[in-house]
Structure of Short chain dehydrogenase:
Amino acid sequence: MAGASGGIEAVTARRLAQAGASVALPARRQGRLDALVTEIEASGGTAPAVLSYIADQTQAEVAVQMVVGRFGRIDILINNAGLMLIGPIVGADVEECERMLVVNVRGLLCITHAACRTC
């Protein structure tokens, strides 16, 4: 599950773990990631943290290899990492807009590519 440290991703990870799935949690925010792992494991689930920035191809590949090393395979990739800038485009910081595109598009491509290479 890419981007698992917050939002829809965290809710999905909790629900999948409650249903008995082992979920791997790649994300870049260590504190939030640790809290989610603790919560899922306290409920009897399996949820290893995979600290990574999936928009970096090398980190995406390392994350996938860590998951495959732990579970032997990836059955499902929920690729939902993303950023959303709130506010008007007028006066928006172009670098922040670029960061959003990098995570939302490049991140999707990098983690999907890495996961598909393991199939």
User: Anything to note?
Assistant: The chain has one domain: 7-116.
